[in-house]
């Protein structure tokens, strides 16, 4: 039985280590909150924030992202790219090893366990990438990986997995062939779906891989030592890890805490060494000089209009609402960075260039009263209705902003339109949206990583993250084509076309941009975030 509850002895040992660590700050434990328990530790499946935090710290792909956003070696010590940009050859570190607990080893047949090759091999990456394109597994594969040769055909079961453009030349050499050159490909390889998987161990778990901590083997800076559901997870330093960097923390304690309001006090009093904060939470810590911050402009607030709703599924109804609200009539909230210039957050890039620098402001449409009334009248006719009432769900702190928008809508659309405003806490709001139990939600969309392609891909028909419930064959085809695009300029153009399509159909009315922050307590350094500020990386973390 896996160690579900941390023993008293282990806790005492860890606390003694905390008190006696050297003055450099290395070798100490770090404490960080999670909003919920992880769902899966399988890199090809992990999609929720808690799961990805564990995966990104306990696994390592071919390449990594450093604190400055630069691509650096991971398991691959070097790589070459052919002149035509279609072939990547990676040389793997001989020292890269798997960590397997005694509990995990018991899953293997005795002869396999005794002869297990602990080296991370090219075949491990071949198997991991083949799993990433298994449509039956619910994988969370980044769209940037679909540029791999035959990836779409494999995913759609038109070709066998053996035809995917990924080949183990030998134990330490991996070759990846692309359909077309792509400037984003190395960045795509940093995603969890591109991390290695040992086939013989995966098969030994009999379909349970990643669902329990003891049914995973790890190759990253840490391994998952224990998990007490609803309480915490402990990541211990992986002594087998031999990457370019030394793993500085001894352990990472990830505490489950769904009460977001307590984060401010816990980072202030040092209970947490680091934690994510919203702008509103950061304001409460103004003047606390001992706390440092790193900001990420990764979210856009606005009205998410359910494209599958009985009433809001009518495009003219959504467009009428979009034409009847003006950004400048609504005061910018003090905690928001600026009025949104589109749906895609400011942090997103295409290739290595900022996306919004290319597009400029595409959210400058003012109120068009006549058009709004015409669209509303036609929508009522299409729906065979004389009057309609819509419910808007929103966070409590945005109620006044929603009321201002409602005033504008009712003033322009008249007595045939009314609204109910329902304020919810963050957990309930997220649940209602996830359960597709809403008509209009004032909420935010947050980038999962820095890629504009990935962000816009969230709203494709088959995406689990498509909170707009938008379905369009033309949009899906555009996003599919975009991941195969030849040049950065074409990627930019296609992303802009896709974003305008979302705005033209009024699936989302963008209002404000907002930063999120990684806060670090006094003396804490070296922790940084990837995936547009959503995933902390602890390998360099110290507390002096």
Describe the structure.
With 544 residues, this protein is an alpha+beta fold. The protein has 2 domains: 8-269 and 521-543, Periplasmic binding protein-like II (D-Maltodextrin-Binding Protein, domain 2, 3-Layer(aba) Sandwich); 298-515, Dipeptide-binding Protein, Domain 3 (Dipeptide-binding Protein, domain 3, Roll), CATH 3.10.105. It has 18 helices and 23 strands. Mean pLDDT is 91; it is low at 1-22.
Quick overview of this protein structure:
With 544 residues, the chain is α+β, with helices and mostly antiparallel strands.
Ordered list of secondary-structure elements with their pairings:
Elements: H1 8-20, E1 29-34, H2 49-58, E2 63-65, E3 71-73, E4 76-81, E5 87-92, H3 102-105, H4 110-114, H5 122-132, H6 151-155, E6 166-170, E7 173-177, H7 185-188, H8 199-204, E8 222-228, E9 232-237, E10 251-256, H9 263-268, E11 274-278, H10 279-283, E12 292-305, H11 315-323, E13 338-339, E14 349-350, E15 353-354, H12 355-359, H13 369-383, E16 388-395, H14 399-413, E17 417-424, H15 426-434, E18 440-446, H16 452-457, H17 473-482, H18 488-504, E19 508-520, E20 524-525, E21 528-530, E22 535-537, E23 542-543
Parallel strand pairs: 1-10, 16-17, 16-18
Antiparallel strand pairs: 2-3, 4-5, 5-7, 6-7, 8-9, 9-10, 11-19, 12-18, 12-19, 13-19, 14-15, 20-23, 21-22
């Amino acid at each position: 039985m896996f160690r579900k509850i941390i023993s008293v002895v282990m806790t005492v040992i860890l606390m003694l280590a905390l008190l006696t660590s050297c003055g450099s700050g290395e070798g100490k434990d770090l404490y960080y909150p999670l909003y919920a328990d992880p769902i899966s530790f399988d890199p090809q499946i992990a999609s929720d924030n808690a799961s990805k935090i564990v995966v990104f710290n306990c696994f390592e792909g071919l390449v990594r992202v450093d604190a400055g956003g630069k691509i650096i070696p991971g398991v691959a010590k070097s790589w070459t790219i052919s002149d035509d940009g279609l072939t990547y050859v990676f040389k793997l570190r001989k020292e890269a090893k798997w960590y397997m607990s005694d509990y995990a080893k018991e899953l293997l047949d005795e002869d396999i366990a005794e002869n297990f090759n602990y080296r991370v091999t090219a075949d491990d990456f071949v198997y991991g990438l083949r799993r990433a394109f298994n449509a039956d597994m619910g994988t969370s594969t980044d769209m940037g990986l679909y540029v791999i040769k035959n990836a779409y055909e494999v995913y759609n079961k038109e070709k066998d997995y053996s035809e995917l453009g990924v080949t183990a030349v030998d134990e330490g050499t991996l070759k990846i062939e692309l359909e077309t050159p792509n400037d984003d490909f190395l960045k795509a390889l940093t995603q969890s779906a591109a991390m290695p998987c040992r086939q013989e161990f995966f098969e030994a778990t009999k379909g349970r891989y990643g669902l329990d901590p003891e049914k995973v083997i790890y190759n990253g800076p840490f391994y998952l030592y224990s998990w007490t559901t609803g309480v915490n997870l402990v990541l211990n330093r992986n002594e087998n890890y031999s990457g370019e960097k030394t793993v500085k923390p001894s352990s990472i304690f990830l505490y489950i805490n769904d009460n977001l309001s307590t984060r401010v006090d816990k980072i202030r009093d040092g209970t947490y060494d680091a934690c994510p904060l919203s702008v509103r939470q950061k304001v409460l810590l103004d003047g606390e000089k001992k706390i440092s911050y790193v900001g990420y402009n990764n979210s856009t607030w606005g009205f998410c209009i359910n494209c599958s709703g009985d009433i809001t599924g009518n495009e003219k109804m959504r467009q009428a609402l979009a034409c009847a609200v003006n950004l400048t009539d609504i005061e910018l909230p003090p905690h928001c960075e600026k009025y949104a210039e589109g749906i895609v957050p400011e942090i997103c890039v295409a290739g290595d260039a900022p996306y919004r620098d290319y597009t400029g402001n595409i959210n400058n449409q003012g109120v068009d009263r006549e058009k709004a009334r015409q669209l509303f009248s036609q929508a009522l006719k299409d729906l065979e209705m004389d009057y309609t009432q819509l419910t808007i769900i929103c966070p409590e702190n945005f109620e006044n902003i929603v009321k201002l928008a409602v005033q504008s809508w009712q003033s322009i659309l008249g007595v045939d339109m009314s609204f109910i405003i329902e304020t919810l806490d963050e957990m309930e709001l997220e649940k209602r949206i996830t359960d597709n139990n809403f008509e209009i939600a004032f909420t935010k969309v947050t980038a999962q990583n820095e890629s504009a392609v990935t962000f816009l891909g969230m709203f494709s028909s088959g995406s689990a993250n498509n909170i707009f419930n938008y379905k369009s064959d033309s949009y899906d085809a555009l996003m599919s084509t975009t991941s195969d695009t030849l040049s950065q300029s074409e990627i930019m153009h296609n992303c802009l076309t896709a974003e305008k399509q979302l705005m033209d159909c009024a699936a989302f009315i963008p209002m404000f941009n907002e930063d999120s922050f990684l806060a670090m307590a006094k003396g804490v350094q070296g922790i940084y975030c990837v995936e547009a500020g959503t995933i902390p990386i602890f390998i360099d973390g110290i507390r002096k």
